[in-house]
Amino acid sequence: RIVWLANQGSAVKEGDPLVRFDPSSARQQLQEKEAALRQAQAALDQATANNHVVAEQDKIDLATAEYQVERAKLEVSKLEIVSRIQGEESRVDLKLAEKKLEVAHANVALNKASGAAKEASLARVRDKAKDEVELNQYRLEQMEVKSPSSGIFHVLPNLSQGWLNAKPFKVGDQAWPGGALAEIPDLDTLE
Fold first, then answer.
1. pLDDT single digits (tens) 47-70
2. Is the pLDDT of residue 120 over 90?
3. Could you give the CA distance from residue 157 to residue 160 in angstroms, rounded to a whole number?
C-alpha cells in the first residue's frame, strides 16, 4: 500500500525518494523470521552440546569396555593356577567382554553419525531461516523507491479498476510487484 508519493510533475534528482510503501507487514514478517532464526540457532547449539555430552559418555563407556576386556584377559592368564571350571568361566567372560567392546564401538559410531546428521539437519533449518531473514530485510529496503535519474516525476494511471476508470496512483492505493507506478521521462531526448 502506498503511504507517500512525490508530487505529480515535480522535478526530482537522482536518489530522491519517489514512493514509500507501508512497511508494517514487512517489519512484522522480519521479526517473525528473526525469531525463527534465533530458535533454529538455539536448537543447533543444543544439539551440538548434546553431541559433545554423548561423545564424552561414549568415551567413558568405551574405556570401561576396554578395561573389562583387559581384566578378562588377566583372568584367562590365571588358567594354569586355577581350576578348569574357573578357567572356562574366565574364557567365557573374555568373549563376553570382547563382544561388549564391539557393541560399544558400534554404539560410538552410531551416536557420532546420528549426532552429525541431526546437526546437519538443524544447520539447514538455520540456514533457511537466515535466508528468509535476509529476503525480508531486502523487501523492507524496497519499501522506498528512489529516483534512478533526474527529471520530472510523472505518476501513471492505476489500471486496477479497469481502463475506463483509470486514475493516477495516489496515497492509499494498493500496488503489485513489478507494476509500473510512475515514470521519469528523459527530457534530453524530447524536442
1. 999 999 999 999 999 999 999 888
2. yes
3. 9
